[in-house]
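Suppose a classmate hands you a notebook page containing two proteins, each written out with its sequence and a corresponding row of structure tokens. How would you begin to make sense of it? This section walks through that situation. The first entry is reproduced here exactly as it would appear on such a page.
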Amino acid sequence: MLNQNFIEIDGSYGSGAGAILRVAGALSAVTQKPCRIFNIRKSRPKPGLSIQHLLGIQALAQLCNGRLEGDRLGSEEIKFYPGQIYRLQPPLHPPRRNLDRVSVNIPTAGSITLVLQTLILPALFASQPIKIIFTGGATDTFFSPTIDYFHYVFLPTLEKMNLTENRSLLVEISVLKRGYYPEGGARVEVKVFPSKLKPINLTERGELKKILVISGASNALKNKKVAERQVAGVREVLGKLKLPTEEKIEYYDTQCPGSQICLAALFENTIIGTDNLGKLSKRAEDVGKEAALELLKEQKSQACLDKHLADQVLPYLALAQGKSRVTVSEITNHCKTNIWVIEKFIEGKFEIKGSSISFLGKNF
């Protein structure tokens, strides 16, 4: 272990959200700096580690052969001692270890995309490809990105930082079975291919090429045409503006009923997106309308990253080999909190000017 001194992270700082745990854990693994995180989700109705936070940090320890203290449901403090994740040029005689597969079993409707936020960043710094297998959990649940947003918005943005010439993708994702709240039951496989990261300069969108509309629901809702009706709600909003759209409607075999919609606006230089989930008390048309109205709000900002994407991209900017600059639609409290966490681990500073965020200085 390169550094025995703990980096102390107050989990109640700023937004006080679970993202503090995810970002700190991922950067601890990459930088080989042990961390102590306390006051985890202190201001939440149910403080401490929920199932998705617990399983995410345990999977991270599995990924990097690390050690945890305090990893139990409801715990408000953990200590994480990361093991080594070898760089693309590993030591001449690395110890023999199987680093090609991580299994995550989620017995609830815990969010798969939130667990992936913990794992993908360090997996990019492994010495060989990593396969992450999810059994159980939810692909589409509340207070987290849907799997479609992850696939069509986050991953293409991450690919802009790919410095490996012989690979077209950093991350491949296969959704074998969807899972909704409250039962979950999803099955997902993700492959992460190690790469160095290059900086990005996303300040000009370019022309809008098209808007992808991906609407899906469980087979139990097919007779009610829920997926089609969600798209109809999008058309009510976007149809008036005569914007170029491409629609995709899907139904799935799931353990419990549910639906989701994702909109991804593809510009020449960037992608912005929104998503929404169906609810028993909400008309399917309104689910689509809300997503479309939120997308128009994001478009009006002229920024290259939507407010949710900005949070997720910041750790990658800090680990890229050089200076990055992006414009964001809104600099949220989550965004500021993530910056605070990142600067605990990485040498360098973020600079905020208006709607622009830059990362300056050396990284680890």
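The notebook's second entry, a different protein, reads as follows.
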Amino acid sequence: MSMVVSAPLSNQIQGPFIDTRRIYEIRERPSRMYSWTAFVTAQLLGELPLNIIGSSVYFLIWYWLVGFPSSRAGFSYLMLGIAYPMYYTTFAQWVAAMSPNPEIAAQLFGFFFGFVITL
């Protein structure tokens, strides 16, 4: 279920990323106020609290209602609540960084994400 939800969430991330990238390319890069590394770091750190809050709510509703044992809850939360949301967020932003518009980013993300998951 987590993999099904991650694809639409990644597509929602790509649109604002491309919009702010356009602003960076038009205004900030020529003025040399900050670098591309600072821009990408700010984008990733801005998504981190939203990832943790959203995935924590998802995990709390999903894990114990299904009836999984509490002894493995910590590792499961680390993987499904922290690591996997950071993976698909950074992967979506990576695809958006190399795409000219959100439509192509969505197509490329679907292709790359499906290819990576099958490996």
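A careful reader of the second entry would note: The chain has a mean pLDDT of 87.
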